[in-house]
Structure formats: C-alpha cells, structure tokens
C-alpha cells in the first residue's frame, strides 16, 4: 500500500503508544501527565532514570519527556542508556532543562537527545515539540516498514537469482556435453578442441562425426548473439550434425540401410533452409565444415561466413585462405565456398570462431589474422591440447584479462 507522506507529517496522532514522562518531582510529573492527557496522549510516569529503564525494557516507547537534573541517574545518562537499549528502533527524546550553555546542550545531543525544552515549560511550545516528535517517529517507522519490505523483496530476488544461477550452470553443463571429448585420435590425425563461452552459456559449437571408417567430418559453428537463445540454437545445430541419429543428420542422404555424405555446399544449404523456415527467429550462424581423409591427409572445407581457415605447415609457415561466403540463415540463397588442403606429416589446420581474431587488447585493438599468425609461429613446436591451452593463455596476455567479450572455440586438426 502506498504511503502518503503528507499524511504522516500532518497527523501526529498516528503515534498511539504512551509517552514516557520522567521526573524526580511528583508534582512536575503530574503536571506534565495531565497536560498531555488533555491533548489525547496516554502517559507513563517514572520517578528516576533507573525506573524509566525498567519501563522501556518491557514497553515500547516512541516519545520520552525527561528532566535533565535528577538524583542518581541524570537525564543525559538515562538518554544514553535508553538509546543503547532501543538499538535502531525509532524514538524521540525531549530533555527538560534550565541549562542554556552551548557546551551543556551539546552533551545532551551527543547522548542521543533530539530536542530541549526550557523549564518551566510553556504548554504551546511543549505541544509543538510533541507533534514534531510524533511526525519524526512516524516517518522513521514508515521508512522502517519500507526497508523491511525492500529487504524481503531483495531476499526474494536473491532466491530467484540463485535459481537462475543453478539453471544456467545446468545449461552450461548441458552445452559442454554437446562438445565431444577435447581430444581425438583418428588414424594418422589428432583432433584437439577449444570451447570457452564468455558467459554461463555461449553461441559457439565445435564437434565431429564419422562419415566412414576413414573419413571424419569436423565443424566449427558460431551462432549470432550470446546467452541462452544462442545456446539453444547450438543445441539444435548439434542435433543436425550427429552420428548418433544419422537419419536426422543433414549431411547424409539415406540409401537403403546406408547413409552417404552429400556435397559439402549442400550441407550448408540444408541448414540454411532449416533456419530460414523458422520465421520466429532472426538468428543466423557462420560455419566451417570439413571432411578429412584420415588415410591420405586430404581435407575438404566448406566455408559459410566463418573466419578464414588457417594451415600451419611443418616448417612453421602459416597460410590463411581468404574465401567469400555468406552466413547460414541470413538470406534464402546463400553462397558457400569450398577449399581443399593436403596435410602432410607435421601440418595442421585450425578452424576457429571470430572470438579469437576479434579479441581486443586493452586499447580495443583487435588481434586479427596477423596476431594469430604470430601466436601460431611462437607455438610451432607444441601440439595438441598443449597448443590449444597455450593459445588461450596468449589471448589472455593480449587481452589483459582472464574474461573475454566473446566466446572462444576452435578445432585443431594435426597430421602426426
């Protein structure tokens, strides 16, 4: 319910708890009590600071009117003890005093007093001070209620965030399960994979499936965007490029009980048709799709808007292959390019997402092909997963941080 702040300030009667009157003079207490009763206030009387603390220990008090000079515990000492007893609970404390020196009044303020009233008190002034105190307490109580409601809402929000965090962690594990083992031995070849999303989940995907006993298909995919929507698309793409369900694999045509690999451009075209048919989605993806003859070392790569395939020869030289092609799912009639490589012993091919070459340094200068070539040249003598991990370490050093703005993924194919 919305709190009307103007009503809080205008209605002093909102404080219904009794006013505590503390004075060692019985006559003075009775005078104060009768005066407050006429104005509609209920009162509790205490003849000393010690007696007043006994009252406040069991009764919640919003306003205190206390004499300063009392035998035993003074009004200032009682005020200090009362504030300690109340903690953060709102209360308004008025000291009755004949003192006028600034130093003495400052002591009262430091003890926790909110206001002063000269003795003998003036009824009009006392009533004004009480109404001011009531307004202050009402506002503090309203704020305390709002703070409690806010704390409850923050607690609920924290619980919701924890639930989302658990779901995202589960989604991350699921997505990691889409990526095969990071290392594969395939005849005379070794395949090493990198998959590192920039958040809980990402839009990159790497994987492989066997076409025949000597042919291995490998793919590197980068779905537009980040987060859950992109991750869901990678799961969908993975289902279309799986040898677990060859009838569903868009790279195969069924011929009786066998499945034959189609033209590589047709693989990209079929995937493009699937994405174009989804009118509710504006996502697209880039992909490099390769087939390796693990006996001869011949590699065919179909390119669909993905970063340039890069070959590093056994002597350390690096070759980028510039190809013109369009992403998948962007237009109806996509154009896809094909390139062939023959990998000799010691050669390697890397397919990768643009999270690598578009990794920025602290000045937002991108790594680009030149930077990747330098990294590969420095790492010419290491292979496999060691090469992949060293590449990530080099990117962290270049970026100047351990977290990257985009997903990182790559497939390293080496003839050993």
Could you describe the 3D structure shown?
The chain has 416 residues and is α+β, with helices and mostly antiparallel strands. It has two domains: 5-147, 3-Layer(aba) Sandwich (Rossmann fold), CATH 3.40.50; 179-415, 4-Layer Sandwich (Phosphatase 2c, domain 1). Helices cover 40% and strands 24% of the residues. The strands form four sheets. The chain has a six-stranded antiparallel sheet with strand order 6-7-18-17-14-15. β12 (285-293) and β13 form a beta hairpin. The longest helix has 56 residues, at 123-178. The protein is rod-shaped. 33% of the residues are buried.
Distinctive features:
Rossmann fold, 2 domains, six-stranded antiparallel sheet, five-stranded parallel sheet, 11 helices
Uncertain runs are 1-13
Q: Approximately how much beta-strand content do the residues carry?
A: 15-25%
Classification by helices and strands = alpha+beta
Label the CATH architecture of the largest domain: 4-Layer Sandwich
Can you summarize the main beta sheet? 6 strands, antiparallel
Number of domains: 2
Helical run tally: 11
Query: Within the CATH hierarchy, at the fold level, what is the topology of the largest domain?
Result: Phosphatase 2c, domain 1
Strand order of the largest sheet: 6-7-18-17-14-15
The percent range for helix content is 25-40%
Radius of gyration: 39 Å
Sequence of secondary-structure elements: HEHEHEHEHEHEEEEHEEHEEEEEEHHHE
- Find the count of extended strands (DSSP E, 2+ residues): 18
Question: What topology does this entry show?
Answer:
Elements: H1 5-10, E1 19-22, H2 26-38, E2 43-46, H3 49-58, E3 63-67, H4 75-86, E4 92-97, H5 102-111, E5 115-118, H6 123-178, E6 183-186, E7 189-196, E8 204-210, E9 215-223, H7 227-240, E10 252-255, E11 258-261, H8 264-277, E12 285-293, E13 298-304, E14 310-312, E15 318-320, E16 337-342, E17 348-352, H9 354-357, H10 368-378, H11 384-399, E18 408-415
Parallel strand pairs: 1-2, 1-3, 3-4, 4-5
Antiparallel strand pairs: 6-7, 7-18, 8-9, 9-12, 10-11, 12-13, 13-16, 14-15, 14-17, 17-18
Helix pairs in contact: 3-4, 6-7
């Amino acid at each position: 319910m919305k709190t009307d702040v103007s009503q809080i300030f205008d209605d002093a009667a909102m404080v219904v708890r009794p006013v505590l009157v503390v004075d060692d003079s019985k006559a003075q207490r009775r005078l104060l009590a009768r005066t407050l009763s006429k104005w509609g206030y209920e009162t509790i009387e205490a003849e000393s600071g010690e007696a007043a603390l006994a009252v406040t220990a069991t009764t919640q008090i919003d306003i205190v009117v206390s004499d300063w000079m009392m035998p035993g515990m003074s009004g200032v000492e009682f005020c200090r003890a009362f504030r300690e007893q109340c903690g953060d609970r709102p209360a308004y404390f008025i000291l009755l005093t004949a003192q006028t020196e600034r130093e003495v009044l400052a002591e009262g303020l430091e003890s926790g007093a909110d206001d002063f009233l000269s003795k003998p008190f003036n009824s009009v002034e006392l009533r004004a001070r009480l109404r001011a105190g009531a307004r202050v307490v009402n506002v503090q109580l309203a704020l305390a209620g709002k703070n409690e409601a806010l704390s409850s809402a923050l607690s609920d929000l924290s619980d919701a965030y924890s639930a989302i965090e658990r779901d995202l962690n589960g989604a991350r594990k699921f997505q990691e399960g889409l990526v095969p083992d990071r290392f594969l031995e395939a005849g005379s070849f070794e395949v090493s994979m990198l998959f590192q999303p920039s958040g809980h989940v990402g839009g990159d995907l790497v994987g492989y499936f066997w076409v025949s006993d000597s042919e291995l298909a490998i793919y590197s995919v980068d779905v537009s965007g980040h987060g859950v929507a992109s991750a869901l698309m990678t799961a969908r793409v993975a289902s279309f490029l799986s040898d677990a369900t060859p009838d569903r694999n868009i790279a195969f045509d069924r011929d009786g009980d066998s499945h034959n690999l189609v033209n590589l451009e047709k693989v990209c075209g079929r995937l493009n048709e699937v994405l174009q048919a989804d009118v509710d989605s504006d996502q697209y993806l880039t992909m490099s799709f390769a087939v390796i003859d693990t006996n001869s070392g011949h590699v065919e790569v179909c390119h669909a808007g993905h970063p340039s395939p890069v070959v590093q020869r056994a002597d350390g030289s690096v070759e980028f292959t510039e190809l013109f092609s369009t992403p998948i799912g962007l237009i109806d009639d996509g154009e896809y390019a094909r390139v062939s490589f023959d990998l000799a012993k010691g050669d390697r091919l890397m397919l990768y997402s643009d999270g690598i070459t578009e990794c920025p340094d602290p000045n937002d200068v991108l790594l680009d092909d030149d930077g990747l070539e330098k990294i590969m040249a420095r790492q010419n003598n290491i292979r496999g997963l060691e090469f992949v991990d060293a590449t990530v370490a080099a990117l962290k050093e270049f970026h100047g941080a351990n977290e990257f703005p985009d997903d990182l993924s790559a497939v390293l194919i080496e003839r050993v």
